[in-house]
Amino acid sequence: MTLPKLSIGALGGTVSMQAKSAGEGVTPAVTGEAMLASLPELTELALINVETLCLLPSASLDFEQLLSVLRWAKAQVEQGATGVVLTQGTDTLEESAYFLDLLWDLDAPLVMTGAMRSASQVGADGPANLMAAIKVALDKNSRRRGVQVVMNDQVHAAAWVRKSDALAVDAFTSPLFGPVGVMVEGRVQYLSEPPLERMTLPYPGKTHHRVALLEAVLGADIQLLEQIVRLGYDGLVIAGFGAGHVAAQWAERIGRIAEKLPVVIASRTGSGTTAQHSYGFVGGEMDLQGRGAVMAGFLCPRKSRILLWLLIGCGMQRKVRECFSNVPL
Ligand code: ASP
Asked: Residue 38 phi/psi, 5° resolution?
């Protein structure tokens, strides 16, 4: 029997971290090749190509690096890989997964995973997560699902997954939407059909632009907001109160900024959608839309920043409203 080809790219994160000596903090040290040593049964599942693309804590990944990871992953599929698995730190996994998902225009699965416990800890979850991710990437039912995140025996869609606990093993959830699949006796069982449509964007023509993300908080002053245009930002996302609201004094500044750059208002609550025509007060979503801001819908502030950054990078500033209102659910 010919085995399928599978490529694994290691980027770092807790899944690759261990302490140099007892009592020291863990740092990225375990290469992709070494990670696979804990899974000898893999040789019966697939012909594995493993590469250590970088060894970083995920807080230090950036868009340029993710674009080169994307090129690498696409090349793997072009060279015959059935699927691709990426391991990375969990701190920014929800952002990098959505970033790659928006650019992943292939049917082959791109599956991302990590670990909440380092390789040095008792009960490290890295090997189990990696094995589950590999099985998901090899499963024929994983095609046409874009980028998925596999953690703790659950499969999550890139657009909705978030790290909702700082240290727990079950840190990854998709509030409101739930996981799209679960691992059952070593196989993925999907709970829903692949999406009928996916939003994918062209490779960004420019990458040096910047999108700021500011959170609305009780009693906040307006000094940071006042600086956004002067500091040369190309776009702004506001993590707004509730269904996408800000204080009255922010509303007026946001209106002025929206004359110059795209401004997106998301909800800081962690679940649910922004409203469109419910609240009429100054700083409410009706007022903000009237001033030119775009509501993010179900996309959280961080993912909204990713989408806005890519839209600007693709020269699609004029399509910001349309794209945010057409994010497939
Ligand atoms: N705690 C993080 C992790 O899970 C560190 C990182 O994101 O690199 O991997």
From this structure: -80, 0
Q: Are 18 and 119 in contact (CB under 8 A)?
A: yes
Query: According to CATH, what is the number of the domain 211-325?
Result: 3.40.50.40
Angle between helices 93-103 and 301-313 (to 10 degrees): 40
Mean of per-residue pLDDT scores for the chain? 97
Looking at residue 63, its pLDDT comes to 98
pLDDT tens profile 234-252? 999 999 999 999 999 999 9
Give the mean model confidence (pLDDT) for residues 6-10.
98
For residues 115 and 96, what is the distance between their CA atoms, to the nearest angstrom?
A: 15
Does the pLDDT value for residue 157 go beyond 90? yes
The atom number, within ligand 1, closest to the CA of 15 reads 9
Confidence at residue 53, expressed as pLDDT on a 0 to 100 scale: 98
CATH 3.40.50.1170 segments of the chain? 5-190
Q: What pLDDT, on the 0 to 100 scale, is given for residue 169?
A: 97
In angstroms, what is the span from residue 121 Cα to ligand 1's centroid? 14
Distance 94 CA to ligand 1 centre (A): 12
Q: What lines the ligand 1 site, CB under 6 Å? A: 13-14, 57-58, 89-91, 114
Q: What backbone torsions phi and psi does residue 87 show, to the nearest 5 degrees? A: -105, 135
Residues of the chain with CATH 3.40.50.40: 211-325
Residue 91, both tokens: 């701190």
Q: What is the pLDDT confidence band of residue 172, given thresholds at 50, 70 and 90?
A: very high
Atom of ligand 1 nearest to the CA of 92: 7
Superfamily of domain 5-190 in the CATH hierarchy: L-asparaginase, N-terminal domain (3.40.50.1170)
